[in-house]
Amino acid sequence: xxxxxxxxxxxxxxxxxxxxxxxxxxxxxxxxxxxxxxxxxxxxxxxxxxxxxxxxxxxxxxxxxxxxxxxxxxxxxxxxxxxxxxxxxxxxxxxxxxxxxxxxxxxxxxxxxxxxxxxxxxxxxxxxxxxxxxxxxxxxxxxxxxxxxxxxxxxxxxxxxxxxxxxxxxxxxxxxxxxxxxxxxxxxxxxxxxxxxxxxxxxxxxxxxxxxxxxxxxxxxxxxxxxxxxxxxxxxxxxxxxxxxxxxxxxxxxxxxxxxxxxxxxxxxxxxxxxxxxxxxxxxxxxxxxxxxxxxxxxxxxxxxxxxxxxxxxxxxxxxxxxxxxxxxxxxxxxxxxxxxxxxxxxxxxxxxxxxxxxxxxxxxxxxxxxxxxxxxxxxxxxxxxxxxxxxxxxxxxxxxxxxxxxxxxxxxxxxxxxxxxxxxxxxxxxxxxxxxxxxxxxxxxxxxxxxxxxxxxxxxxxxxxxxxx
Length: 470
Prior knowledge:
The protein is built from 22 helices and twelve strands. The protein is 47% helix and 16% strand. By secondary structure, it is an alpha/beta fold.
């Protein structure tokens, strides 16, 4: 299979590899995001031991680790190490004079089966790290376990790591490389339905009509995604029903803490704990108006596209789907709302586009952050919103509006953005961007040509500017 993206992650791993001193890295991220693929790619052409633990007992895992050590070091198959301590003592001894990478994949499975494993590794690291050239990588798919039992202060391994890497789902521009036979717009729709997790994208990468793909992947009783959100929550949380209810409340429009707490019938303090876990897992995000560190106007939104699609379209129609042979009926119910559903996703794609342009030094404003703003207009007393703002300094900023509609963007959208950016903010230099799925009216283009600080960008132009990477 073609290896896609992950340039930054590979560069980070290579930097640690080239140090030639003992390195201990923690690599984690949600299941199916491509961690194992990344690590296998990294250890190509290196002397390396790659071991993936299983959700089984110690004896089987230690036997498999013994075989992985012998295979990775080019040794004949021999006796099985009696325990983890003996196996890692051997690895530390072998790595005194040569660089050896040791990848311990799905570490939580082994650590749950052997509660002493973290302490064993801690003692051996403390004893041997200053005389070892080992590069030890612990990898795990349980985000909550890796955060709480490996990275947290209470962990025996706390303070030993020399680096950590959280592997995130692909952004749209990398994700579409897993949909090579799709048009950019089809890729955006599928990305909106499943997000950037590689295995999810492979499930919808088949050729054919988009409606048929959505039916097969989402709406049939045997579809891949029909139970995926529930399965994920069961693996990551002790009371999945509580987290399920919180996500459903947000999907139904409860975006403020007090609203979500009311839906859950919990105190705000308890609700904060639920939301904090969902944010840790990457399912939910907390937003404050751009420029505000802490705000009572903070909002919560579903940040993961797969969860958002499921809770927006599948869960409300579950009773209909349970009757069987009703996929077409549900698809007809979804269709009128899909363009509105894609609005926030297109905003995120535009954000990714600007960040990539910034990384190449090709934006007129070198912003330090990029986010959404909302607030009350002091003159009209109405709530106003700007899709994206990015500030370079107190005098210079970028403002953007993003429109995923079938109609071309008219001059009124540009005039509104220009007016809000001028009246509600006090930057002396303002760069305005309009992003559009369907292009711009002639009147909008004429108005943009009259202004020195406006750039109109269609979705097709965005994709053309950021082509597939090798």
